[in-house]
Write a sequence for this structure.
């Protein structure tokens, strides 16, 4: 009940910001449209819809980090969070209340990407449902990252770190736009130990029913998700105590 | 039973002692005004009493609940209007009020009744569907105070409630506060001497984290040998400089 009231507020704050809607939903759609147009003229296997769309759904999740981080950092700067800290809401109400409402937004973003891709000619099978299901642990990782950034940085820093750095990291090191193998060397090694490429490969494997490729990437994602969630809880509690 | 009892309550920030071994009691149903120059430690005292900030030493009891060991009990009986306006900007006025009902676990009927009651009391009825962030500063302030009252607290903390209010709004708020007098305990801070004089049963004057004077405004005027309470305040605070 208490959690519900606070989660409702989180969802409203995020969905009522037109900028959020534009970046969170508009941007991935623009990318799908643009790259498909390019692909129509110069065929690049990388940008074929069945390869591209799962990647874009993962890339779009970096905006979930931004949503969570911006909201939390702004809340921390305003007196609202102070007021709420003096109410019977508990620490877990806050952590769940910031996290849970973003999960359906993340899945909705995936749904919209797949619908757009289907309109552009992507053939959908039952695997799209599995792909959307596997979005959840990946989204949890990105949201937890948002909780971490929102708990540690102020709202200006969040804009730079989550808005610019993270979206770029999750774009360049994800293998969505180009094959990391082609670059090789240190770049590939770095990309391989970070979660982004594994999240994209996981989604691709699930979507294309390439079952043998699911688990190896899934463990990477799961590991990072667990670490991020633990970090998020600890850092959120730390900032709560520091009031 | 005493509504508030602090025992050597102390808060240090690095090299400064914001609240210095404060011993203070406030009776149930009393309206207590905490005065003092900027940086005297009023807000810090309120933050400790409302479990927002941890004290470094000492203890305090809010309706016999320790702020250190009975945090949940304290939070369920207090209402706080922070020094800075604390509203959720992207929520409407009604949603802000309902959010506070929600985090206190009110039923739907009670939520509707309290929202109606408070919006009538604070003249918010006409702007219930407006976004809080779009209101003028003074109207946000009214909403912020209404949000503190909606939970039917036994003890209400008002940190500079009339800051930024126009003359009419201030007089309305005074009426609202008077209407609560005797029913609940109110701790109020203010920089307006006439406000403390008009509303408070007893006044405490703080400086450098310590309580300099405690009593009714009449007692303080007599003690300082002045006709006006403002002069008494100045005399007490200036006198306190030497020690
Ligand atoms: N978070 C903080 N970190 C460091 N110092 C702080 C912090 N909060 C308050 N202080 C210091 O503690 C002292 C008391 O501050 P406090 O806000 O309690 O004063 P106040 O009486 O409410 O003043 P004002 O009338 O200006 O609101 C000040 O010297 C202030 O600088
Ligand atoms: Mg203050």
């Amino acid at each position: 009940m208490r959690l519900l009231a606070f989660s409702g507020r989180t969802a409203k704050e995020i969905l009522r910001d037109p900028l959020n809607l534009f970046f969170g939903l508009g941007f991935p759609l623009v990318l799908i449209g643009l790259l498909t147009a390019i692909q129509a003229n110069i065929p690049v296997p990388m940008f074929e819809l069945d390869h591209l769309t799962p990647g874009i759904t993962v890339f779009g999740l970096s905006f979930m980090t931004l949503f969570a981080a911006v909201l939390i950092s702004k809340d921390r700067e305003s007196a609202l969070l102070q007021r709420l800290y003096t109410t019977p809401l508990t620490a877990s109400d806050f952590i769940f209340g910031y996290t849970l409402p973003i999960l359906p937004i993340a899945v909705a973003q995936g749904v919209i990407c797949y619908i757009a891709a289907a309109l552009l000619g992507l053939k959908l099978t039952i695997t799209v449902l599995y792909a959307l299901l596997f979005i959840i642990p990946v989204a949890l990782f990105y949201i937890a990252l948002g909780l971490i950034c929102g708990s540690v940085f102020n709202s200006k820093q969040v804009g730079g770190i989550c808005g610019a750095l993270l979206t770029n990291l999750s774009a360049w090191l994800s293998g969505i736009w180009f094959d990391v193998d082609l670059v090789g060397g240190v770049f590939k090694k770095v990309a391989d130990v970070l979660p982004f490429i594994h999240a994209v490969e996981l989604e691709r494997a699930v979507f294309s029913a390439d079952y043998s490729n699911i688990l190896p990437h899934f463990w990477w994602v799961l590991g990072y998700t667990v670490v991020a969630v633990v970090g998020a809880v600890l850092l959120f509690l730390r900032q709560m105590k520091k009031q | 039973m005493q509504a508030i009892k602090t025992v050597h309550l102390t808060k240090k920030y690095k090299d400064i002692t914001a609240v210095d071994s404060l011993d203070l009691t406030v009776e149930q149903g009393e309206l207590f005004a905490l005065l003092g120059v900027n940086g005297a430690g009023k807000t810090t005292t309120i933050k400790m009493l409302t479990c927002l900030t941890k004290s470094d030493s000492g203890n305090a009891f809010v309706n016999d609940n320790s702020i250190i060991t009975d945090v949940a009990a304290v939070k369920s009986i207090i209402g706080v209007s922070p020094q800075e306006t604390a509203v959720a900007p992207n929520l409407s006025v009604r949603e802000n009020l309902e959010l506070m009902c929600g985090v206190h676990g009110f039923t739907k009927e009670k939520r509707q009744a309290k929202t109606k009651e408070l919006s009538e009391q604070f003249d918010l009825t006409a702007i219930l569907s407006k976004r809080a962030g779009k209101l003028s500063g003074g109207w946000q302030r009214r909403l912020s105070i209404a949000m503190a009252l909606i939970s039917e607290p036994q003890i209400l903390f008002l940190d500079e409630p009339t800051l930024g209010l126009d003359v009419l709004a201030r007089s309305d708020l005074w009426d609202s506060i008077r209407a609560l007098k005797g029913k609940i305990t109110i701790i109020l801070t203010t920089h307006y001497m006439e406000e403390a004089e008009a509303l408070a049963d007893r006044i405490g004057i703080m400086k450098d984290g310590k309580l300099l004077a405690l009593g009714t405004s009449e007692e303080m005027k007599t003690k300082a040998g002045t006709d006006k309470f403002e002069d008494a305040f100045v005399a007490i605070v200036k006198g306190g400089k030497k020690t």
Notes: Chain B touches chain A at residues 47, 50-54, 72, 75-76, 78, 80-91, 95, 98-105, 144, 147-148, 151 (CB under 8 Å). Chain B has two domains: 50-184, 193-199+209-243.
